[in-house]
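Ops channel
N.P.: pipeline sanity check, posting one input/output pair.
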């Protein structure tokens, strides 16, 4: 019987978490899912020897915690801002060439995403970060990481489209508020008369 290596187990756990979080709705749910997957991948990257990826994933957890409050007290803003120079120090101290460039760039984009108040912008920046992490995973040989990045990116696109497309209940509510002549026809764009 073959016993899976701990790096495989943590990679699989990270993959499952990444498969789930982009499909969540709302900023805090997205942050919680992203933080849980970052924890799993921090351990996975550490176990496969991808030190920069492990450091950046660990830093993600701190960023999720400080980005969590909606009101963003001053201490959260200060701690979050302090993660930016820490990101540079961690990238430099774990430098491994191109994989480090990809992980650090993905982390910079993720840093911007976690601070967004808009779920749509958060998804867009994480989509760009996912491309950087995908390159990191190709370079470090993390199959779980690469598959998770691709699945995450697909989920982010789907979630953004889902959140942008008006739902039937929204159309029904709009029809009740507007006079009949101005109510949108389901499935057709509304056109103003000239």
């Amino acid at each position: 019987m073959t016993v899976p290596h701990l790096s495989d187990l943590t990679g699989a756990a990270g993959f499952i978490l990444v498969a789930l979080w982009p499909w969540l709705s709302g900023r805090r749910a997205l942050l919680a899912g992203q933080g849980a997957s970052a924890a799993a991948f921090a351990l996975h990257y550490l176990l496969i020897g991808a030190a920069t990826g492990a450091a950046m994933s660990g830093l993600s957890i701190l960023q999720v915690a400080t980005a969590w409050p909606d009101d963003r007290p001053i201490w959260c803003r200060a701690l979050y801002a302090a993660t930016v120079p820490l990101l540079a120090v961690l990238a430099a101290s774990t430098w491994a060439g191109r994989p480090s460039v990809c992980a650090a760039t993905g982390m910079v984009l993720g840093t911007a995403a976690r601070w967004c108040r808009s779920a749509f912008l958060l998804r867009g920046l994480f989509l760009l970060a996912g491309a950087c992490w995908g390159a990191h995973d190709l370079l470090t040989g993390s199959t779980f990481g690469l598959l998770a990045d691709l699945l995450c990116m697909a989920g982010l696109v789907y979630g953004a489209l889902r959140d942008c497309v008006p739902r039937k209940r929204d159309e029904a509510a709009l029809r009740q508020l507007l006079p009949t002549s101005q109510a949108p026809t389901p499935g057709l764009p509304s056109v103003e008369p000239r």
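N.P.: looks fine end to end. Residues 188-194 have pLDDT under 50 and may be disordered.
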